[in-house]
Structure formats: structure tokens, C-alpha cells
Amino acid sequence: MGAGHADPAPAEPSMNAPEQILVVRLAAIGDVANASALSERIRAERPGAHVTWMCGRVAAPLVTLLGVDEIIVVDERAILRGGPLARARGLAAVWRRLLGRRFDLVLLLHPDPRYQALVLPLLGTPTHRLDRSFGRMNPVPGRFLGDEAARLLDGPKSTGPIVGHYPLADVRARLPATSPLPSAAGRRIVLVPGGARNVMRDDPLRRWPVARYADVARSLVAGGDTVVLVGGPDDAWVRPAFAGIPVVDLIGTLSLVETLTVLRDCSAVVVHDTGPLHLARLVRAPMVALFGPTVPRQVMSLDTNTHVLWGGADLACRPCYDGREFAACRNNLCIQEVTVADVIAAIGAAAPAPSPDAAPAARH
Description:
This protein is of the alpha/beta class. The chain has two domains: 20-154, 3-Layer(aba) Sandwich (Rossmann fold); 180-350, Rossmann fold (3-Layer(aba) Sandwich), CATH 3.40.50. The protein has helices at 29-45, 60-64, 76-81, 84-98, 145-150, 210-222, 256-265, 275-282, 296-299, 333-336, 340-350; strands spanning 20-24, 50-56, 70-74, 105-108, 127-129, 188-192, 226-229, 248-249, 268-272, 287-291, 306-310. The strands form two sheets. It has a six-stranded parallel sheet with strand order 8-7-6-9-10-11, sandwiched between helices. A five-stranded parallel sheet has the order 3-2-1-4-5.
């Protein structure tokens, strides 16, 4: 499995040949994490199927952990944000990978119909895709996106009732045994103060104010906890807010796999609606999840391991995200209604402080 190898020769149809399924989900990290519910369902219900996943370069390390049989990596920046020539070249590269291939089913996890251009060489192959048109809608507003990805296996027909929820992948067993997270006698709390940015755009309305993350860090450190900052290279702008606070700054230093191991091994993670929130779900980390303009139940599965703080209940404009765009808001008062005291209390519920005579945490 891997993107750097040549595609195998197309298989001849056979009564004994495994079912060939192509999953297409390029980005973003959170969407790929939620889409893991689809791969989990395929493995549970069609264990003999050969699953190929088409994804972007950023998501490829994550898709590798999902246990699919083959990955086709595309240049998502060229295709999604490049000029006309770059887009044409990007599409041509994808088409070359698909020419001569045979698939029994294509599962296109993008509701924008323009993404169908990615699989033009497979014209005639049965294709199920996300669809926002009336009467065929998937995802349905308000439903968890992981469940909506998984039910794509059923096609466009509407069925019900569907009891229970499709689980996201659990990637803990596929991660390295050790992580960059420092050992500590007390709790190790991960904060994700940046984020809300992907290959397509920056969505600052989803962010809890960075100054409040700093206040949380200050309070936790004063109480004897170890605070770890996690984020991508583009999140360096948050550092000045933590000046003078003795935190472990891992921003911009971790690979995606290393980020997952840090989240796996922490006592709890505090994060708003951004990529690491969804990564934390893949390692079953205790979490304090902060929301404002988006609906918690729609973007994540809720369980006893997750403590959700959703601000703005008194605002007539909440939520303001329609699945594609946010309102032209100048001040995200919704998520600002979540206080530092709220977060500190939720951390205590998610990761109770150890007793003074507890043994030190194991070194990772």
C-alpha cells in the first residue's frame, strides 16, 4: 500500500475477484477522520472488498492508518486552488492513475458536483456521492457527518430506521509506542489554540480566543499540570499569547502521526472545531470541545469521553454555518460565551486530577 508505487495492472473481471471499491475524499483532515466511519463499515459488512482511497497529500498519512488496501494520492492544492493550467495538470495526473482500472463501486464523499471530474475515466461505474439536492440529500443537516459518510454505501435511497451509529476508526494500535509528549507526575493537558485552517480557507469564526487559551494554560500550570501546545506551522502566530507561561510548545514540530500519538497519550485535549478535534476522536482521547457557529452533533460523535461547551444559546444567529459558508460575522460572540472557568471545570470532569500519592505517569 502507498502512493509512491505504480498502479497494479487492471484485473480481469472474475467470479472470484474481490469487489473493488474506490473511496474519494481529498481533504480536510477532519472530514477524512469522519469519513473513516465509511471504511469501518465496508470492512465490517464487506470484509473481502479491496478498498482504494483517493486523497490529498496532507491527508495521506492519516488514510494510511485507516487500514485501506491502496491509496491514490493527488495534488489537492493544484486541483482545489491552482490556476487553470495547474488544475488541468492535476486532473490529468489523476486520470492517468485511473485509466485501465476497474472498480465495482465509487463512493464520492464530496457534495460539490465538480468533484465528479476526478473520476471521469471511470464513467459508467456505479457511483454514490454526497448530494445536497432536495430529495437526495446526504448529508442531512444536523446529522453526524461520520454516519452520513457511512450510509453512502447504501446509495441514494432513503432507509430507516437505522439503529446506532457507525464508529470512527480507532488508530491507536497502528501508532508508534512512544510519542514526543513529555513525562510528568500530574496531568498532561494538550491545548490547540490555532487551527481552523485547511487547504481551501481560514475559518477564524470557529476559534476560541487565544488569550483565553493562555488563561487556561496559566491556571493549569499554577495547579501543577503540564500544558502542551499543538498545532501546525501556520499556527505560530499564537505563541506571543503564551509568553512567560512555562508550556511545552510543539507547534509546527510534529508530523500528523506524531500529533496523533501526543493526543493518544495526553490526559485531555482542549480544542475548538478544527482538525485535531477529529484526530483526538481517532485515538479516543478525553476531550473538551469548544463550539460556537457550528453544531457539535453534526461534526462529531458525542460520548462520555467528550465534554462539549457550546456557546451562544441566546443568539438568534447560532449556528451560522450552512455546510459550506459562514455568515458574514464580525464578532463570534457565540464561542466567546464559553468562559475560562467553564473550560477549567470541563477539564476536571474529562481528566480528574490525580491524588497526591498517585504514581507518576509512565514515560513515553
